[in-house]
Design goal:
Two copies of one chain form a homodimer.
Chain A: E1 3-8, H1 16-31, E2 35-40, H2 46-57, H3 63-87, E3 92-95, E4 102-104, E5 113-116, H4 119-126, E6 130-134, E7 137-139, E8 145-147, H5 153-163, E9 168-173, E10 194-196, H6 197-205, H7 213-221, E11 226-230, E12 239-242, H8 246-249, E13 255-271, H9 276-286, E14 294-298, E15 303-311, H10 315-326, E16 333-346, H11 356-366, E17 373-377, E18 380-386, H12 390-402, H13 409-413
Parallel strand pairs in A: 1-2, 1-9, 2-6, 3-6, 9-11, 10-12
Antiparallel strand pairs in A: 4-5, 7-8, 11-12, 13-15, 13-16, 14-15, 16-18, 17-18
Helix pairs in contact in A: 1-3, 2-3, 5-7, 6-7, 9-10
Chain lengths: 414, 414
């Protein structure tokens, strides 16, 4: 008998018909003899409906009260699924965040889980109950309801899986797994059978939306195997996300990602003195703007060019910050490009195989795509290109590393 | 500085526009310097919407889970009102049943309040906060959410008023007070300035829907003054409900009520033996049917006729029970009338004034209305008449006891 955590996202419980289908699936898992914890999101659209009401009543809804409001979405889903499971004859009990003592800090809307007390959950499971848990919510030490951030029902599921030492955490969604690339852009993209935590983290951080970043981090920390799977198909085998193993090293590139919402700012001829970066990026961080890639080219004359990317939506505000300090740091000029794209390849195989970056550059050169910035990590290479070449670059890299004839490529090109 | 509990019903918070209006009213009360506790119902229609979803998923939704579901209605209202009050600049904090330790038994859907721990509430008020409390909900000793029954946000308000020793509990609704009769039936009905708990209990029990019966009982037990008032009008002075005083005794009849949903069953020629009533009404109570009036006429021959009323919707089931025991108790026959109405007059003045019942009978006789059953209590006289005369009887009694020239009537007719 295993303990399995299943998480169903908003589209998976988006209607009463969908809730019936989820109940059937949960029931079958229970009937196989396993202990089942189900974590549910709010019905699709419900969180936005609630937030819209709050926005109609206040320009800046109080965060504590907004959490009281939006947490009802998951509460409704949990109750409805429990009602359905009971009507099918399965002993079932629902739990809210405070009932399972999912204790968080007090950062309403983006709270961090501090502890989970699974005593009541284990008692329910030992009594033969299916436990249905409202995702996304916790409780702070004062007993106030908190929420964990958008998409954080995944986090609830992984935290419960870790705390209960579940054998697997199954994430049910509306796609049938993690893909080598976004199928909407790259028709040749295919589902991955297996992917490591590290690769999944890079993929999630780089814009693949299947799994929430923090939930993957938590799964890695507690070594909780994840399976991402479609709730809309009985056949979906899904993608297994877990610890890296030897077989994964043979796969050079697990996926290609594309982020089309970046822009680029370059400060030229800056006096290269200690503390320069802090003086540039301090004010930008202070304005709440997330800087992604940063490249510095030191010149021979003690002057340097500094280039960095920010989300396109933040470009105007970032430029305001930069202009206000440009004189102070002695910059010769400020250039910006508002339409750039970041294309990345991710794979743990890079740790043990040389030449992957070089292959990437050759593939892009062969397509006539100019590379504007490069950043590398142990298992990732990212390049910034003009936005109009973003999709072309993604498809070319997918063909080269993940297409049908891809296996022979590294040697030939490298 | 007084502590005031205000309760707003479903139509009073039925839209975002209404919530804005309620926030203005609450804010003005706070600005007068009083400590304010606000209890809110679910937005009008929300509870039914939630229950309909449950009904679509199950023929008999699990009561524990149904409470988890429907309690979200009040949670949403409380959060929205708190968000609005905060955006108007009033420090405000919302509380759910479990956060205020509104502890109940475990009868889901009809739980009874056992205790209220007001420590956190008092702390919030002392800190200068307006407290907005989700009505209708509590928590059982296991930490499960319970609900107190339809209309029970009144009960939450009265319980909190009692526990905090509030100076008044204001019940805001869509009518501007308690009326001498239902204005839809009796155009001459007028708002009462004052009414005693006992009268209000009889009126509520007899079908006047302004206040929930249990909340009036609780208010009387803890001597919490109630004011019933409209949230839709600034001018509404409302009706004060409180302890009986001398001035009330001068008012012979406070109100006339009409219940048009009754039916009547008569068992004729029953052998009048000890335990007869138990053998008749035990099975009916066992079937969950509430018997209202019971009349027994003992005959000289040791045989008796037994007549009683049940809600019309339960008539068929009541007859089934009666037929199954008719032989056993030796009844000569069973008669029933499915369309009867109960008309009642209520007033504490009856305690000290004789002849009220006689006046009532004369008024009805003058209208040609035949009285089929009579039941009296210390402050109430009820008669059962053919349903088609119900409204006529009500209007005639209202004219006689509460009309413009009513004061002279008792002596003249009595």
């Amino acid at each position: 008998m295993a303990l399995i955590v299943q998480k169903y996202g908003g589209t998976s419980v988006g209607s009463l018909e969908r809730i019936r289908a989820v109940a059937e699936r949960v029931g079958r898992a229970r009937a196989r003899g396993d202990q089942i914890v189900v974590v549910v999101s709010a019905m699709a659209g419900e969180t936005n409906r609630l937030l819209q009401m709050a926005a109609d009543l206040s320009d800046a809804p109080d965060p504590r009260e907004a959490d009281v409001l939006v947490s009802t979405g998951e509460q409704v889903s949990a109750a409805l699924l429990a009602i359905r499971l009971r009507s099918l004859g399965y002993p079932t009990i629902s739990f809210l965040g405070h009932q399972l003592k999912i204790t968080t800090d007090s950062r309403h809307g983006a709270a961090k889980i501090k502890a989970v007390d699974c005593e009541r959950l284990h008692r329910a499971l030992s009594d033969g109950h299916i436990a249905v848990v409202a995702g996304f919510q916790g409780v702070n030490p004062d007993g106030d309801i908190t929420t964990l951030g958008r998409g954080a029902s995944d986090l609830t599921a992984v935290a419960l899986a870790a705390a209960t030492h579940a054998s697997v955490c199954e994430i049910y969604t509306d796609v049938d797994g993690v893909y080598t690339a976004d199928p909407n852009i790259c028709p040749q993209a295919r589902r991955l059978d297996r992917i490591s935590y590290d690769e999944m983290l890079e993929m999630a951080g780089l814009g693949a939306k299947v799994l929430q970043l923090r939930s993957v981090e938590l799964a890695r920390r507690f070594n909780v195997p994840l399976v991402v799977r479609s709730s809309f198909s009985e056949e979906s085998r899904g993608t297994w996300v877990g610890e890296e193993d030897k077989s994964m090293e043979n796969v050079l590139v697990a996926g290609v990602t594309l982020d089309q919402n970046q822009s680029k700012i370059t400060l030229t001829g800056v006096a290269d003195r200690p503390g320069l970066a802090a003086r540039i990026f301090g004010p930008i961080a202070g304005a709440g703007i997330v800087v992604d890639m940063i490249i510095q080219n030191a010149g021979a004359d003690g002057r340097t060019d500094m280039t960095f990317t920010v989300p396109r939506a933040d470009l105007r505000r970032a430029l305001e910050q930069i202009r206000s300090i440009a004189g102070e740091i002695g910059a010769a000029g400020i250039r910006h490009e508002d339409q750039v794209a970041k294309v990345s390849i991710v794979g743990v195989g890079m740790r043990t195989h040389a030449g992957v970056a070089a292959t990437m550059f050759k593939v892009l050169a062969a397509e006539g795509v100019n590379i504007e910035m490069i950043a590398t990590s142990e298992i990732k290479v990212s390049v910034v290109v003009n936005a109009k070449y973003g999709e072309l670059a993604m498809r070319a890299l997918h063909d080269a590393f993940l297409g049908d004839g891809a296996h022979a490529l590294p040697e030939e090109l490298g």
